[in-house]
Model the fold of this input.
Amino acid sequence: MVEVGYSVVSAHRRRGYARAMLSALLARAAEEPAVRTVRATVRSDNAASLATLAGFGFTRVAERGNEADGIEMVFERPADPASVR
Done:
């Protein structure tokens, strides 16, 4: 399993950068035979990132608390793009 993360400076949001970064990270994970699952963790109030993950077939698998960030949701999807619906 690998965990991916990305961040976009607020002045440059809503321009497709997060989708481009996530696409590249997923392609890289798919190249590694040992990687079967890709994980991402997102704050529950980050609607844009939640939508981005949903668009790439991530499924919520857990929640966890974090003193600094509050509730975070944990998402996973298969690393193999053929396995994603």
